[in-house]
Design brief:
Mean pLDDT: 78
Protein name: Scm like with four mbt domains 2
Largest sheet: 6 strands, mixed
Main location: nucleus
Structural class: alpha+beta
Number of helices: 19
Keywords: Membrane, Nucleus, Repeat, Repressor, Transmembrane, Transmembrane helix
Subcellular location: Nucleus
Helix content: 10-25%
Radius of gyration: 33 Å
Shape: elongated
InterPro entries: Mbt (IPR004092), PcG_chromatin_remod_factors (IPR050548), SAM/pointed_sf (IPR013761), SLED (IPR021987), SLED_sf (IPR038348)
Length: 716
Amino acid sequence: MCYPVTCRRHDSSRTNDSLRLFRVDSFFWEAIALFIVIFHLQSSFQPGMKLEVANKGSLDTYWVATIITTCGQLLLLRYCGYGDDRKADFWCDVMTAELHPVGWCAQNNKTLQPPEAIKEKNSDWTEFLIKELTGSRTAPANLLEGPLRGKNTVDLIVVGCILEVRDAFEPNVYWAARVQSNIGGRLCLSYVGLNDPAYDMWMFYLDTRLRPLGWAKENYLSIKPPTGESMKLSSEWTEALDEATAKALKSPLPLEVFKDHADLHTHSFRPGMKLEMVSPKEPFHICPVSVTKVYNEYYFQITVDDLTAEATPTHVVCHADSPGILPVQWCLKNGVGLERPQGFESQDFDWADYLKHTGTEAAPDVCFPNASQSRGFCKDMWLEAVNPLQPSELCVARITQVKGRLLWLRLEGLTKPLPDCIVDVESMNIFPVGWCEANGYPLTHLQKTVCLVNGKYCCSQLFINHRCFSGPYLNKGRIAELPKAVGPGKCAVVLKEILTMLINSAYKPGRVLRELQMVEDPQWNCQEETLKAKYKGKSYRSNMRIVRTADQVSEFCRRVCERLQCCLNLFGPTIVSDKCPENCFSQTKTKYTYYKKRKVGRPSLGENAQDGDMTKPARRRKKRKAIFVQKKRRTSIVGYQATELKQTRTSKTSKNQIFMLTCTPFFLLKDIDGQALLLLTLPTVQECMDLKLGPAIKLCHQIERVKVAFYSQFAN
């Protein structure tokens, strides 16, 4: 397919009627109907168009026919005069059939004659044709003959074509742009007179900013070169425009390219109104914005709210159907965090107080007629999406959540992970799976495709956000030493690894083990895992139920963070870049939301504490699970490790040796199987295996060799 997911859907009712004459089973019919609907989107011909077709039963005579539906370069036609009778409908190939625009017979002295089957139905066919053709639309001649014959709409846009592009900040200003490349309708454009690739733009050809050459002049709009991009003189810009226009007029872009452009609707916004919007600069969060200017009944200007004195305003031109604009309280109603304005003093943002403070009003709901359409998107669906920070890059993306008409996308395979980006369901920057392959465009793939074998029980990376509030139980310094991400892999394995890291980062690991035992939900699909910790010569062990499926990982992480009284984003599927959505950076242990509910000092757990000595909290009535405490037994294990490592140093690594490596007791005792082996890192090996740096590095080297061999075998 060469259209984004959001292209307008064709009304299939007419398509269904036109194919009912075929006697096929229902499953086959549904497949055919879907095939026709999809490829109708790519055709330059439209149902209802008229053309002149050779008569099958009479040589050298022609008759007017109507296009019923399209399928690529195939047209389903019906001769005029059959009315609603479908029995004589027929398919023809644009590339081989004798098809002509209406009026061709008159110009070439050819005979127009109705088919024999309907010749007697009407006494005056001339009068019939006059009524039939009045107000109708003929198929364009350039699509029926010549070099453009049978081409799809997207294919009509070739490299070197000239279009007019509306200015990003002034809706009444246009300038010409040249097509540098056309990837399935996604155009790389450069302004005429500006040859610097740094200023190239990527737009889908249905973008409302694009118009045919000459459109601005016909509509009495300004034609001005882009400002601030170059120090060229006005005469140089004019000369470049005149030269490009002269060349473009020799082979003009067919107007059929713009037939699918959506019509703009009038808006109801007024200056001063407040609303919510996906941040135009960083589409990773939603922020309060204001309507600061109304240009006309179609366009208005929105400015991101910023109360700081030295702020540089961020403006964006919008229309009634612009993606990402939302009514006030949308985030609150949908359980989504709202970024408070820069310079707003209160830690907790409340719209009622904010509107009163600024003396403004909220935009009424009537301004947002389509604020709840989801278009059938669901969590964990996969698609291909544009990287918002690198528009030329398309990535594999997974939907992490759907709220109303907004999608949160996890872009996979990036060298530097980004927070989930937010896009509208009508965005022209999202595409179905396989779009890049179909259009020969590179796609940024998953870095570790092995996790796609069974997506239900595998999760993508879980992030440890070092800057987030760590709560009363976890040591901030130890948290900072942890890796930034763990995974991807099986959910239970990744979660066990990250929970083990958190336990060993605690002031008192035994206390954290007890807290983690309380994280349960009867509706979760769990498996029981043994978690271990060490503290001052003691080893602690307890059983915990960990979720197994990807759809429950996010909630599980949130519940663990709540239990540990830390920021909800300390670890989980959300990556925090500069500022946490929970605004936890400025919080202290005595002020943080969850911690201030009850004052808890640093956990006190005696060095010689046994099971019976552990004090039960007064509020907790649930029966506590056992935590087993045992003394270290390092001699035999360390000795075995030294022997095993010596062997791996002096002999070549073989499959049998790698198998023996994972079957030794410094692995069986720790419950490390093959899956967990692939997640081991140097800090984990050092702390959990009681190894010094030298042996730990050598062991990690062997583990890396196993990883390389494993991924080389299974990645494809």
